[in-house]
Amino acid sequence: MSDRTTGPAIETSGLVKTFGDNRAVDGVDLTVPAGSVYGVLGPNGAGKTTVVRMLATLLRPDGGEARVFGHDVVREAAEVRRRVSLTGQYASVDEDLTGSENLQLLARLLGHRKPAARERAAELLAAFGLTEAADRQVKKYSGGMRRRIDIAASILNTPDLLFLDEPTTGLDPRSRNQVWDIIREVVAHGTTVLLTTQYLDEADRLASRIAVIDHGRVIAEGTPGQLKSSVGAGSVHVRLRDPHRRAEAARILADALAGDVQLDADPVALAARAGAHGSDRGAAEQASAALAALAAAGIVVDDFSLGQPSLDEVFLALTARTEVPA
Ligand SMILES: Nc1ncnc2c1ncn2[C@@H]1O[C@H](COP(=O)(O)OP(=O)(O)OP(=O)(O)O)[C@@H](O)[C@H]1O
Ligand SMILES: [Mg+2]
């Protein structure tokens, strides 16, 4: 398919969806390159699922445009459907059927003949570590098994574009890792993945690019590295000898770094951003000035580090920014 390798997988401009007077999606512009994982990150109610549902042709946009591999999601919905697959937050397998029956049924619906359907089901069950649970009803699966059978169902026919809407929410670390491996595998076979998540570490590990959405708008977009550097070059972490001097240390850091200081649960720890936009000094220079100011006040620092902010810090900084009225 030529349109799979040329041009972006998804392009939206000014995409809007309203529910009553709630603009759930409020003018979203996205360009998702083909062949990688694209992360859509946002808090509850940000509009992630609504964007996905419009792209998957399940919901009609109220404004703007969206194209999937060059095909308009409204005017060429059938073309789009042929290329995409969706694993929703609330997925589509039949609870009363076994894992194997579900996959065979779906494979038959996709036009595989019976022996081929049986073979494909067995292959996927093995790939997803579900062989032992193949003949158990899906309603008796654990959350992690359920998520894996959902993804297996959505890649029966290798789609060009796979929507994964919060595929790991509520999973334990081991199951999350398994799902991550599956996602990497799917992408290695040429599928583009649009992944929505509330977990920043997940986006950080899997996604080549990330859009952060809040209140139905894209508030930041870029590679994980670009997003991190957009909110400041560095994150300063300090541990004090004496917890009683922490309030004083926080004031000194806030002054020296011209920004907010976070007090960690640990009573001797403080964290702050350095090198934020608008400052004419680099992060390292600011951080060393801050350390000098602490020393001058006679506050003993036991441990100090200057690193890239985590995506969590980025996310908090970005979403806090949008709460300020424009
Ligand atoms: N079918 C609907 N009818 C009315 N309002 C809706 C409908 N679907 C979503 N909304 C509203 O649209 C907004 C965005 O919802 P959406 O489900 O897209 O958020 P989300 O980012 O996926 O959140 P979550 O992380 O909780 O899944 C919310 O205010 C929600 O209440
Ligand atoms: Mg959602």
TrEMBL record:
<dbReference type="GO" id="GO:0005524">
    <property type="term" value="F:ATP binding"/>
</dbReference>
<dbReference type="InterPro" id="IPR005894">
    <property type="entry name" value="DrrA"/>
</dbReference>
<dbReference type="GO" id="GO:0043215">
    <property type="term" value="P:daunorubicin transport"/>
</dbReference>
<keyword id="KW-1278">Translocase</keyword>
<keyword id="KW-1003">Cell membrane</keyword>
<dbReference type="GO" id="GO:0005886">
    <property type="term" value="C:plasma membrane"/>
</dbReference>
<dbReference type="InterPro" id="IPR017871">
    <property type="entry name" value="ABC_transporter-like_CS"/>
</dbReference>
<dbReference type="InterPro" id="IPR003593">
    <property type="entry name" value="AAA+_ATPase"/>
</dbReference>
<comment type="similarity">
    <text>Belongs to the ABC transporter superfamily. Drug exporter-1 (DrugE1) (TC 3.A.1.105) family.</text>
</comment>
<feature type="domain" description="ABC transporter">
    <location>
        <begin position="10"/>
        <end position="240"/>
    </location>
</feature>
<dbReference type="GO" id="GO:0046677">
    <property type="term" value="P:response to antibiotic"/>
</dbReference>
<dbReference type="InterPro" id="IPR027417">
    <property type="entry name" value="P-loop_NTPase"/>
</dbReference>
<protein>
    <submittedName>
        <fullName>Daunorubicin resistance protein DrrA family ABC transporter ATP-binding protein</fullName>
    </submittedName>
</protein>
<keyword id="KW-0813">Transport</keyword>
<keyword id="KW-0046">Antibiotic resistance</keyword>
<dbReference type="Pfam" id="PF00005">
    <property type="entry name" value="ABC_tran"/>
</dbReference>
<keyword id="KW-0547">Nucleotide-binding</keyword>
<dbReference type="InterPro" id="IPR003439">
    <property type="entry name" value="ABC_transporter-like_ATP-bd"/>
</dbReference>
<dbReference type="GO" id="GO:0016887">
    <property type="term" value="F:ATP hydrolysis activity"/>
</dbReference>
<keyword id="KW-0472">Membrane</keyword>
<dbReference type="InterPro" id="IPR050763">
    <property type="entry name" value="ABC_transporter_ATP-binding"/>
</dbReference>
<keyword id="KW-0067">ATP-binding</keyword>
<dbReference type="GO" id="GO:1900753">
    <property type="term" value="P:doxorubicin transport"/>
</dbReference>
